[in-house]
Amino acid sequence: MLRVGVHTSISGGVDKSVDRAYQLGCTSFQIFTRNPRGWKASPLKEEEKVLYKTKVRRYGFEGFNVAHMPYLPNLSSPKDDIYEKSLETFINELRRCEELEIPYLVIHLGSHMGSGFESGKKRLVGAIYKAVESVENSVRILLENMAGQKNNMGSRFEDLRKLMDELSGLEDRIGFCFDTAHAFSAGYDLKVKSGVRETVEEFNSLIGWENVYVIHLNDSKHEVGSGRDHHEHIGLGYIGEKGFQYFLEYDFIRSKPLILETPVDSRRGDIGNIAMVWLLAGVEPPKEVFDRWLEALSEDDVDMEIVKRLM
Ligand code: ZN
Ligand code: MN
Ligand code: MN
């Protein structure tokens, strides 16, 4: 069975994210444990923690639930005030994941803001060491490959490798999250078969797919190498259906949690993207997943057409 899901909202309480994931027929899912656009986070309430954990177990998401760091922290910043605030947020997120028994925390690698990769690397690696020393738990920190925006850290695999080399000894605390749209924007051509093969092989020789615990499956609104980070519905962007088909042929890729961070608009909703992944992977979804889809969709819903192609 595939573990396909989307990022769901915690509006109304963290546990509500689990209901949403279940209702969409997800078999994995991701959340922000708090508002991702602010620095402040109110503590998790005892009741929502219990409810979140109970629902994760009830719906079979254990081991396939993911948290993503909020947007503002920059763990590679050369500015002390930003850096300290970012580290504090990071440590706090690690604790929140532990409280919710979330096994993975995806982090962005940040921007060196012109200070250079080496300087950014020292800051980022320092932050990771400080975080794992101050919070001893089993939450695995996943470094996400970036899209290659100006000054951003870790879009090329050789840069990720440099970071990994600095983190040796932390193998049981860290890992990677591979984002297809980011890799594509950073210049890895996931649109054509040869490009997918080369990308998969290069990543394997530098990082190793066994060190990847979560895949972010996103199509891209821009051409390969654009350095821009705008996600598109699966198959409707520049990677295209074929690109995802090739990528999902690898067993060691499609057996991981596949999290979609795709838009929701008049062209397609979450269920449409989830169903599209099952379709392109050539794997039949279990009956329970179909049941959720048919419960959620009306006959004239845009996503219904994709669901029907699976029936
Ligand atoms: Zn991310
Ligand atoms: Mn991502
Ligand atoms: Mn992105």
Short recap of the structure:
The chain has 311 residues and is α/β, with parallel strands linked by helices. Helix content is 42%, strand content 12%. The strands form two sheets. It has an eight-stranded parallel sheet with strand order 1-10-7-6-5-4-3-2. Strands 8-9 form a two-stranded antiparallel sheet.
How would you sum up this structure, described in words?
The protein has helices at 16-23, 46-58, 80-100, 117-134, 157-166, 180-185, 193-206, 240-247, 251-254, 270-281, 287-296, 304-309; strands at 4-6, 29-31, 65-68, 104-107, 140-144, 174-179, 212-217, 219-220, 231-232, 258-260. It is built from twelve helices and ten strands. Strand 2, helix 2 (46-58) and strand 3 (65-68) form a beta-alpha-beta unit. It has an eight-stranded parallel sheet. With 311 residues, the protein is α/β, with parallel strands linked by helices. The chain has a single domain, classed as Divalent-metal-dependent TIM barrel enzymes (TIM Barrel), CATH 3.20.20.150.
